[in-house]
Amino acid sequence: VVRTEIASANGNAVPLTVVVNHLRSLNGVNDTDAGSAGWLTSGQRVRAKRAAQALELANWIEARQQANAAERLVLVGDFNAFEFSDGLVDSMGVITGREAAPGTVLEHVDSPVTRPLTTLTTLLPQADRYSFTFEGNAQSLDHVVVNEAVFASTLGVD
Questions:
Q1: How many CB atoms are closer than 10 A to CB 46?
Q2: Dist CA 113 CA 101 (whole Å)
Q3: The pLDDT value given to residue 38
């Protein structure tokens, strides 16, 4: 977490909180071998860990927004999750407060975020919504996510 001030065009300082993220990878998310615990498959453990990380970050976001609705939050990094639900764990939905409905995700988590955030790639044309190419498929696992306070401020996004 970095709390900083950005100089705006009019010379005023605009406070900004930036959170750099690197969440659990998708590796093993579909594995079905028995895990070391004996009763969970390794895929179930990976999905549970991904859901727990998303929920922990979402709880932090909600606490920050409850404490100060005007705080400008920018989350960046490798979330290792698509901006849409993959049907396994809706990490980005939980983090942004736009989670998939129960029954549509294997590891469903209700998001505590009451003031939804926006994943900026969703504002781009569909053909431009990717951060890398893997085995010939354009994908987006790296994101910039902002809360409403960023949109309401004098800050712009390019």
A1: 23
A2: 15
A3: 58
Cα distances from 120 to residues 9, 43, 44, 148, in angstroms, run 22, 29, 30, 12
pLDDT over threshold 80, residue 34: no
8 A C-beta contact, residue 123 and residue 143:
no
Q: Assign 39 a pLDDT band (cuts: 50, 70, 90).
A: low
Among residues 17, 50, 65, the alpha carbon closest in space to that of 141 is found at 50
Across the chain, the runs of DSSP E, i.e. the strands, are 2-7, 13-22, 73-78, 118-119, 132-134, 137-139, 142-146
- How far apart, in Å, do the first and last CA atoms of the chain sit? 22
DSSP 109-120: -----SS--EEG
Please, are residues 64 and 16 in contact by the beta-carbon 8 Å criterion?
A: no
- Range scoring the smallest mean pLDDT among 29-33, 63-67, 84-88, 144-148: 29-33
Which candidate, 53, 44, 109, places its Cα nearest to that of 80? 53
- The confidence score (pLDDT) of residue 37 equals 56
- Specify the pTM: 0.88
